């Protein structure tokens, strides 16, 4: 009688994305030159499409089957008794990428579906699509230059600062409106305020079309004007649970957003016990945003280091910043002040620029994805420091 071997340790692996697959391939010592091809072939995805022309749906279904995948449409679509149908496609990433290119034809809606499928695949890879720019947070650190806006500011000065940011390599320009914290119900925006802010956004986008524009506007009227003028991302300047109208606006237009840690009405956090307290609050805010229509893959979290915290709390958050990775969302950092580093710097090294570079570098080495700074010089210096200290980080 042949004895069956039972020591192969067979088990099911839950590989949720391409990077999980790559990790397992590396664990079995697969050929590193083949990692990209293997991961693409082994990542199996499920895509839903809605309101697809019945003729197009049947065409796509046949293409998917030929590629080795499967597709389902409504039973009425088989007999062409309905004009549109929803459909579910299941295939490997490689085959879906091939399908998106195969659909590049102006016949019916095929070309538009192909483009939307390609965009969907980018987001499924863990990439973040803002406007026409793809952010690969798994491999690259991105830098944002901050512009502080106030009524009557000279447009020329703003554009000069933006130009310096762009030359230094900034990926995002963030326009901060200086909204006063603690006010939960902002006054309705005047037409003049909307017009002035929208014009500033328009001019920046006109002169620098390749940069992503973000703003912290809390007033929905101004946010709408900014969106029409070219803004592509928003920041919850007050706790999102108190600004439902803005959240619904962001959700309606499927916009990405910075979600900040803001547990209290006055936005001044209590003394920090453990980082898990902040994790729970960010998770609660994320759930609130998602329940009101914002896509989870459109959220960048910001744990709000320095905002009203003691020095020891800031250092604790810096050390444990990587703990926020388990939320599976990009992490952004903007330091409101760097004085908490003064205690570790002495003599002539006690300079704001040095504090900024050190704090931002520590944030990046602890898995921060977007660093937001307030001068082009900081962007240049930070890029150089990152390239020297950690060549694997592409900034």
Measured by DSSP, the beta-strand proportion falls in 15-25%
Q: What is the 3D form?
A: globular
| Uncertain residue segments | 264-269, 346-350
Q: How many whole angstroms does the radius of gyration measure?
A: 24 Å
SSE class: alpha/beta
Number of strands: 13
User: What can be said about the biggest beta sheet?
Assistant: 8 strands, parallel
State the order of secondary-structure elements, H for helix, E for strand.
HHEHEHEHHEEEHEHEHEHEHEHEHEH
- The proportion of residues forming helix, as a percent range, comes to 40-55%
User: What count of helical segments does DSSP give?
Assistant: 14
Q: Average pLDDT across residues?
A: 79
Q: Can you list the strand order of the major beta sheet? A: 11-10-9-8-7-6-13-12
- State the separation between the terminal residues, measured CA to CA: 63 Å
Brief overview, please?
The chain has 395 residues and is an alpha/beta fold. The protein is 42% helix and 16% strand. The chain has 14 helices and 13 strands.
């Amino acid at each position: 009688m042949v004895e069956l071997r039972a020591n192969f340790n067979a088990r099911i692996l839950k590989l949720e994305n391409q990077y999980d697959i790559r990790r397992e391939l590396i664990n079995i010592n697969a050929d590193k030159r083949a990692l990209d091809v293997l991961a693409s072939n082994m990542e199996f995805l499920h895509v839903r499409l809605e309101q697809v022309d019945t003729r197009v749906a049947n065409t796509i279904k046949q293409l998917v089957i030929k590629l080795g995948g499967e597709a389902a449409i409504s039973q009425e679509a088989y007999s062409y008794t309905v004009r549109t149908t929803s459909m579910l496609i299941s295939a490997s990433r490689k085959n879906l990428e091939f399908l998106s290119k195969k659909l590049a034809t102006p016949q019916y809606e095929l070309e538009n579906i192909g483009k939307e499928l390609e965009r969907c695949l980018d987001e499924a890879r863990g990439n973040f699509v803002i406007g026409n720019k793809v952010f690969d947070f798994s491999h690259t650190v991105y830098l944002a230059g901050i512009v502080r806006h106030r009524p009557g500011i000279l447009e020329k000065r703003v554009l000069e600062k933006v130009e310096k940011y762009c030359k230094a390599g900034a990926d995002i320009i963030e326009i901060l409106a200086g909204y006063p914290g603690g006010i939960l119900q902002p006054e309705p925006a005047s037409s003049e305020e909307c017009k002035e802010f929208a014009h500033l956004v328009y001019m920046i986008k006109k002169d620098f079309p390749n940069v992503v524009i973000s703003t912290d506007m809390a007033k929905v009227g101004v946010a709408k004007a900014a969106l029409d003028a070219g803004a592509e991302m928003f920041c919850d300047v007050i706790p999102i649970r108190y600004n439902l109208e803005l959240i619904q606006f962001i959700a309606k237009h499927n916009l990405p957003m910075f979600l900040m840690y803001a547990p209290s009405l006055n936005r001044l956090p209590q003394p920090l016990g453990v980082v898990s307290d902040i994790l729970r609050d960010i998770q609660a805010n994320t759930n609130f945003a998602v329940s009101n229509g914002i896509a989870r893959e459109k959220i960048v979290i910001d744990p709000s280091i320095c905002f009203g915290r003691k020095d020891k709390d800031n250092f604790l958050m810096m050390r444990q910043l990587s703990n926020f990775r388990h939320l599976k969302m990009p992490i952004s950092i903007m330091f409101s002040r760097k004085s908490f580093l003064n205690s570790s710097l002495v003599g002539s090294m006690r300079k704001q620029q040095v504090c900024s570079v050190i704090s931002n570098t520590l944030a990046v080495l602890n898995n921060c994805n977007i660093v937001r700074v307030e001068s082009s010089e900081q962007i240049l210096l930070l890029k150089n420091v990152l390239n020297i200290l950690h060549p694997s980080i592409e900034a």
